[in-house]
Every structure is written in structure tokens, then in C-alpha cells.
């Protein structure tokens, strides 16, 4: 009977366990089991070298050539073009930082165009003193040594020091994040505000152009046409004066009526440009005059310690005037109210009606245009108009009195 002894079985079991343990120890470790963000950081650090070489070569070439040729007519324009290219490199780097490092970073204000800076020389001067472009140039210049360092450290760590690669990548990319925030972010809240005002300026220009076209159209189709007809009628009356005095008298009467209509149209047009009552007596009287022409009974309350600057006063007047026109045309309201007051350094306007509601700035209506106009002067425009009403429109304008305060 060939039974195995307990001692032999124990010895074989121990050998098997030891062999299994040894085999388990020899299993290859999970060397690259990093998260997605770590791999993005590693990729960013490896890209630093080629990006650094490209940026350094570009900056060195245009800066050297521009400075060397600055005594000629092409030197300064070359520097300006180089700075524009640096801006583009900075934009690409901000995009790379957002995608791979998760850095939340705003775009700086755009570079002014030649037509907005008084021509070529204005554009040239604005470009040469552009702080965004110069910071982007500095960023590209210092990236080469940093790129060499990060590329070398990460490449070696991938094959030699992989257990600490994640920590190294995180630490190195913290430096990258600091560089991006320090050199490629908008320099201040003021610069971001400038970017918004640059955008709003286009709205103001378009609005002014539209107003000029409206005035031209009203003059051409209204008062001018009536005056031309008036001149022709008086000419015919003059011819008939001796032959047919009665017909001439009738034509003169008709011309008199045309004169009255032309004067009324000119008054309306002048009121649309800037009403005399606003200039002479201020917002209280001007808004009361507008309210009197509204088809809905309107109560006006103006509580101001002094008159604001003419520009602010004019914007407030035309804002309320357009809101009251909307009430007349669309609200089906029975009553309305206008309140104007000053709160700290803001001029407050509020127009309310008990109409059917449903007004919104998101429908491409006149309310959207009012919101854009007020936004262009650092104002605020808020519409609260649930279906069924009532509607409350609140507007804020920066307060500037007539002494400039």
C-alpha cells in the first residue's frame, strides 16, 4: 500500500504555496494605472518641449528682425505683426491649458482694429503697447528651458520612476498653471470690462447709424415731400392768381394746410431727436408730456435731488418713452405707472402696467434693443412680465450729474 505520509503531503503543500507566492511576486505591476487627468498632465508636459522650441524660435526671429530694422520704415510694422502672432500663440496656449490642465481662463480683450484707432498709425501704436501681446511674448520666450526640463523629467520617470510619476506630473503642472494664469490671463478686471465695452460699442454704433437712417427717411418721405408739394402748389397758385383768383385762393388754403402738417412733422422729428421740454425743464416735465400722449392713463413720479448729465437724462427719457409706446401698442393695460429716483450712484427707472404680460427681451423685440443700449453705457435692464401680467420693467443707469460727478 503506497500511501503518502502526512509529512510528505505537508512538505508538498508548502512547496506549492511557496511556488505560488513566488509566481505572484513575479507578476508585472500595473505601471500605467493612472487616471485620465494624470495622463492629460503628462501629455501637456511632454508637449512643452516642441511648443517651447516653436515659440522661442518665433519670438527670437521677429524680435531680432524688428529691433534691427526699427530705424527703417518696416521695423515697427514688423514688430507689430510679430506681437499679433504672439497673441495668437497665447490663444493656442490658453486652449491647451483649458483642455489638458483644466484651467479656467478668460480670453483677454481683442486688439483694436485700424478703423477704431484712427487709421494705420493709431493701430500701430495700439499694437506696440499692447500688454497682452508682450506678456504672450515673454511666456513664449521662457517656455523653452521649462519645456526641456519637463520633457526630460517626465520621459525619464515613465521608464525609471514610474511610481512617483503622478506626483511629479501634478507638481510640474502646478507651475504651468501658475505661468498661464500669471502671463496669459487678462491682467485685471478692468481689461475684462474693456473687452465688454468694446463689444457694446458696436451696438452703440449700429444704433446711432440706424437712428440717422430713420431721421433721413423721415425727412425725405415726410417734411421734405410736403415742402416740395407746397412749393409746387404755390407756384401753380401764382400762375392762376390773375386768370382764376378763386382757384388760386383754394390752392393757397391747401398750401397753408400742408405747411401746418410739415411743421407738425418737423416738431415730431425734433422731439424724437431730443425734445425741447427735456432740455428746458428736465425729466419730470418731459416724462409727463410723454405720459400724456400714451393711450393708457399713466401716473408719473420723479424724485431726483438734481438733474443728471444730459446724456444720461436723454437715455432715461427715450427708454421710458419707448416702454410707454409698447404699453400703448401691445399691453392691453388699463393703467400704468412710471417711477424715477436716484439710489446711491445709480439712476433708477421703473415702468409698470396691469396688462396681459408676456413681454421678454429674448424675442428680438424693441425690449432687446433697449437692453443692448443700456448695457452699452454700463446700465442694467430687467423685465418681469409673467403671462397674464402685470409687467414691471426696471432699468438702472450710472448717475452722473451735470458737473461730471
Please tell me about this protein's structure.
The chain has helices at residues 6-25, 36-68, 75-101, 120-128, 131-159, 165-183, 189-240, 245-273, 276-281, 283-293, 310-331, 366-375, and strands at residues 298-303, 336-343, 346-353, 380-384, 391-398. It has 405 residues and is α+β, with helices and mostly antiparallel strands. It is elongated. The model is unreliable at 1-31 (pLDDT under 50).
Could you name the key traits of this structure?
alpha+beta; 5-stranded mixed sheet; 12 helices; Heat Shock Protein 90; Single alpha-helices involved in coiled-coils or other helix-helix interfaces; 405 residues; elongated; 3 domains; 5 strands
The total strand number stands at 5
Pattern of helices and strands: HHHHHHHHHHEHEEHEE
**Which overall shape is indicated by the principal axes computed on the Cα atoms?**
elongated
Q: Structurally, how many domains make up the residues?
A: 3
Distance between the termini: 116 Å
Supply the number of helical segments.
Answer: 12
Percentage of residues in DSSP E strands? 5-15%
Which sequence of strands runs across the widest sheet?
1-2-3-5-4
Structural category is alpha+beta
**Low-confidence parts, pLDDT < 50 over ≥5 residues?**
1-31
Mean pLDDT: 78
Secondary structure: helix percent? 55-70%
Round the Cα radius of gyration to an integer and report it. 37 Å
**Largest sheet data:** 5 strands, mixed
